[in-house]
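Progress against Task 2.4 (sequence-to-structure conversion) is shown through the following example record, which the project officer requested during the mid-term review.
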Amino acid sequence: MAENETTRPLRISFLATYVPKQCGIATFARDLATSTAKVGGHQLGQANEIQVIAVSDTRGAYAYGPEVRFELQQQKKTDYRDAADFLNMSPIHAVNVHHEFGIFGGQDGAFILTFLGNLKKPVVTTLHTVLQEPSEGQKQTLRAVCSLSTLVVVLAERAREMLREIYGVPDKKIRFIHHGIPDVPFVDPAFYKDQFGVEGRRVLLTFGLLNPNKGIEVAIDALGEIVKDFPDLVYFVLGATHPEVKKHYGESYLVSLEQRAKEKGLARNIVFHNLYVTLEELTQFLLVSDVYLAPYWSREQIVSGTLAYGLGYGKAVISTPSWYAEEMLAGERGVLFPFGDSHALAEELRLLLSDEVRRNQLRKRAYLFGRQMVWKEVARQYLETFEEAISRYADLVPRPVLHEHGPLRATLPEVRLDHLRVMTDDTGVLRHCTFATPNRRYGYFTEDNAAALMVIVQNWRLFKNNAVMPLCQTYLSFLQYALDEETGWFRKHLEYGRQWSDEPPSEDCQGRVLWALGSAVAYPPNASVLGLASRLFDAALKPINKMTSPRAWAFALLGLNTYLQRFGGAMTVSGHRMRLARKLLETFVAKRREGWEWCEDAVFSVSGKLPHALIKSGRFLGDESFTQQGLRTLGWLFEVQTGQKSGHLSLIGNEGWYSYGGEKARFDQLPMEASALIEAAREAYLATWDRVWVERIHVCLNWFLGINDLQQPLYDFTTGGCQDGLHSSGTNMNQGAESTIAWLLALHAIQLIESAGRLWTPGPEEAVAAEAPTAADALNLQPRETG
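C-alpha cells generated for the chain above:
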C-alpha cells in the first residue's frame, strides 16, 4: 500500500500577519495556531503539522518563530503564487486564510486571489472585517475570496447576514465561531490591585493599539465629569500607538490625549501605558480592572478582540453600540452608550461604580457567556470546520462537461518506464518515494517487485525491447531471494540493509507473486526467464491450500490461469485452479444480497481483482457460471464507483472502505484500485466483446489524468510516475512503487487492446486463441501481439 497521509492528526497552515508584528490579526493567528496545535496534539511548528505563512510588509523585518515556514511579501504578487505552490507541494490538509482589507497587496487586496486561485487545498477563510458599504472593488474581491474558499468563518452573526445579503454568499458556506480568549478564572479584582499600586481604588481599562478610532477622548471627558464623586478612580489606557498611525503621524494622538487629561485635571487619575504588552502582562491588567471601556467611534465594527477579552475575563463592560458590541453585550451582559456622548458615558459610569451588586451581576453574566469563547473551545470548532472543509472540498471542485454519448476519452499516453527505473536499484524496486525521489528508509516489498515483473512482462509483449531485460532480471532475482524454499512462502519485506523483517507471511503477497510468475511463464522474453519463473512458480504452489483470503485466491487464480495458457496439461495447476475458482464463486453466492454483489461484508483493496479472476477462469474453463458472476460483480463495482450525474470514477477510499449497509468511503482513493478495474474491464471485454467495457476502461484512465473527484491528475507527465493517492485535501504527491506500477499495469492493459484494434470483435473461440501464447513466443522466435 502506498505511504498514505491521514486526516488525523490534521495538518493545517495559517496564512495571516503574524507576531512579532504588532497587529490584532497577528496576535489572533498566533493564539489560534497555538491552540489548534495543543488541541490537535501537536507542538506549534512541528514539521508538516501546524505551520504559518506570514504576510510581511518587508521581508526579513520580523524575527518569526519556527512555525513560520514561508514569508510572503505583501506587495509582491509573485510571492502569492509561490506560497500556493509551496503549500501544494506540502502534506498540509487545509489552509486557514485570515482576511481583512489592508493585509494583502494589490487593488482592494486582490493579490490574495492569486494565492487562492493557484492553491489546490481546502481553504477556510476567517473574515475579520465585513463591510456594509464596500466599494465595488472591495465587494468583488470579497465575493471572489468567498467563492474560492471551501468554507468561510465569521466572528459575529451580523457578519453572516451581511455576507448573504450584500455579497451573495450562500449560508451553507458560512460558519460562525467566536473570537477566542484566554481561559482565566473568575476572580475579585481587589486581589491583584496592590501589585499595581492601586489598592482600594476603582480601576477602568481600555487596551489595544492606539488610533483615533479608539474614542479615548470621550472617556477622558466622561471621567472629568465624575472624578469629584469618585476621586479614587484610575483609568489605565494600555497600548502602543498603532504602527501605521505612528508611521504617518508620530505620537500626535497620544500627546493630544495626555494634554486633554491634564486640562481636565486628571493627571492622577489616568495612566497611559504606551507599551505593546505580552499576553501575561495584558492578563494582569485585565484581572485588576473593575470596568472595561470600549468608547469606539465606529458602528461598523464587526468584531473587536479587545471587547471579547473584556467580556471573557468577566469585566463589567461599557461600550458604544457597534455591531459587535450589540451582539456580544445583549442579554444584560454589558452596558451601551451613544457614540461620542461623554455625558451618557459619565452617567453610566456613575451608576455602575455606585452599585457593586449590579456590577458583579454584569461581570458574572459576561464571564459565563465567555466560556464558549475560550481558545480551547474555539480551536476545537476550527478543527471541526477544517474537517468539514476537507470532506466538502471534492464536492466544490468544478466538473467538466461530458459529451452526451458518454465519458470523455483521454488520449492514451505513451508507455514510459523512467520513474520505475529511478526507483529500482541493483536489489529491486524500492517501495516509497518522497515526491519523485526514492526513499530508502522503507526498503523493498516483495509484492512490489512481483508487480514490477508483471509490468516488464507486459512491456515485452508489446514492444519486444531488449532494454527492459536488466529490470526483468532484477525483479526475478529479488523473487528468487524472497522465496523460503522449505515452506514455499515468499518473505514480504526486505529492509534497505538487506535484512528480512520478521513479518509473518502474507497471503496477498503470495497470490501476487503467483500472478506475476504465471505471466512470466506465459510471456517470457527468453528461455532462461521461462525456466526460473517456472521453478519459482512451482515452489510457490506449496502453501496454496493454506490460503483463506478471497483476495489471495483471486491473485493466485490469475496466475494459475495465465500459467495454464502456456502449459495447459499441468494437472496439478489445473486442479488448484478449479478448486480456487469454485471456492471464490461459492463465497460470492453465499454472501450475495439484494444490492450487494460482494463476497464479504465489506469491500476492501483492489476489489477489481476478484471479478477479474472469475471472468478469466470462466473464459478459459468454458464455464458461464464463473463468467456471469464476475461480470455481475464488476458491473456492480462500476455502479458503486461511478457518479450518477458526472460519469467520472469516484473510487471506494481506504479511509473506511465500504461496508454492507454503510456509506462508501470517498477518500483516500488509490491508483491500484483504478488499475485493478481497468484490468478487470479488459478481461470483461475479451469475454463479451461488449464496447461498454472499453468505455469503462476510459473512465478509469481519465481518473488518472484528472477527471476525478478533485479534478487533479495523478499521472506526472514530467517523471512518468504516479502520485500515491487522491485525498480529500488534494493529491498525495509522493510517487511510490505501488502507485507507479499500478499506473503502468493499467496503461499496458489498455495498450494491449489498442494495439489489436478496439473495433475488432472476434467470436469467443478466437478470443481465447488471441490470449494463448505459443512455444515460439516463449523462445522469442516469432514475436506477435496477442489481442
